[in-house]
Amino acid sequence: MEKIKVASLFCGCGGMDLGVLGGFSYLGKEYKKNPFEIVYSVDNDNYCTQIYNANFEHKCIVKDVRDIDINEIPDFDMLIGGFPCQSFSISAQNPPRLGYKDERGMLFFEMVKILKERQPRFFIAENVKGLLSANKGQAFPMIMSEFKAAGYTVVHKLLNASEYGVPQKRERVIIIGFRDFEDYHKFSYPAKVKQADRKVLRDVISQESDTDESLFFSEKAVAGMMAVRQKMNKGRAMQLDEPCNTISAHLAKVSLNSTDPVYMVGERYRRFSSREAARIQSFPDTFLFDSVSQIRQYKAIGNAVPPVMMWHIAHTLVKCVSKQAPLPLVHKYQSLEEEETNGEWIQLSLFEPKALYFSKHNRGTLIAYCSKAENKNIFRYMQFKYGISDSDIEEHPELLSISRLVLHDKERVIGYYIVESVGLDKAKGTKSKKPSLVYMLEGTNEPIPHISSTDINLVI
Question: What domains lie within the chain, and their CATH numbers?
Answer without folding.
Answer: 4-199+301-322 (3.40.50.150), 201-283 (no CATH), 330-458 (no CATH)
